[in-house]
Amino acid sequence: MTDVKNEILKRLKDKEEQIIEIRRYLHEHPELSFQEKNTAKYIADFYQDKEADVRTGVGGNGVVVTIDSGNPGKTIAIRADFDALPIQEDSGEPFSSKVEGVMHACGHDGHTAYMLILGETLIEMKDQLKGKIVILHQHAEEVAPGGAKPMIADGALDGVDHVFGIHIISDLETCKIVYCPGNFQTGRANFHVKIQGVGGHASSPHTAKDAIVAGAYFVTEVQSIVSRSLNPFETGSITIGNFDGKGSGNVIKDSVEITGDVRAMSENVREVIEREIRAKLEGMAASFGVTYELNYENDYPVLHNDEETTAFVAHVLTNTEIEEATGVEEIGPIPPSEDFAYYAQERPACFFNVGGMVKDGEVYPHHHPKFRINEEALIVCAKAMASVVVEYLENDGIALNK
Description:
- Helix content is 34%, strand content 24%.
- The chain has helices at 3-14, 16-28, 37-46, 108-124, 148-153, 211-229, 267-288, 307-318, 340-346, 376-394, and strands at 53-58, 62-68, 75-81, 132-138, 162-169, 176-179, 182-185, 187-196, 200-201, 236-244, 251-252, 255-264, 291-298, 303-305, 327-330, 349-355.
- The longest helix has 22 residues, at 267-288.
- The model has no long low-confidence stretch (mean pLDDT 97).
């Protein structure tokens, strides 16, 4: 371990309590996607009077912090998100959300907390580093079109060579670091369909065109797409999350509205699913004599971890002594979608995970009202990302010491 990296890891450990304090403050004061004005100000104020360039309002509420070592070298970007979710917290934590109906139920408060202290420490040590570090404090990861895309359009990646990010995972062994080369997280789409029939009296169905029956047929048919239109070795899912057909028992509904979610582990699968959904709607319309309006939106792409960049991360973390970490392991793809994928489309990137499972057995998934994380994971996030940054800059980019 280099002297510089060793000193940075030591300083981070000394500041572990500060990381936890920041995380708890942010947890108490969550803000929804695209509404994170106070959080963005908190982040920008943290860097005030520190030797770094701070740009606010990037692509909306994003904050970009550039740390210039003053020495020649590569430019690395590291990202942490900071938005919350429209969920009423029921975690029982003493630092639970003070905002009615809004909660940090995905760990973004932890991402921001570790990144702030890591940023501060890198600024303290910048004269002993090479190149530049760009910290992407990103708003609005949870809601499409997300914060990454507008931040990129606003120049957040200008001059950047590689991008790295970490996500804390609530049902992964605490302090375990996991990574996956290639396609890691699904691409996503969502759709909304309004089916228009002809209403009528329940006693005379022959005079109507029943939108509920047509909609129910569509929902059933859609379930065959994954099992019958996709290659069995490819991954995709379709979920109908809402079927709005409320009415009276003796009235044939003239219209219903249906909302769905699509996930795919490749762009080809995403294209197949969209094509088949459109075909099922055409068949439904012809069979039941109804019409439909479809709003189909592809948003977050498949998150692809560059293979060489991911091998570098694995090499660094496997060969760095992070005493709090319980291991470094390669895993397979995971289902959730992430707008970090937009950065990975623009630059070679690696997005990896750190386990944050609580020890009392009350483990809940992300986006659950009882979601909690083990705060021991925060120092592992900070040390892991610090190790990647230092090794990257010292090696003037990706180098595997083969």
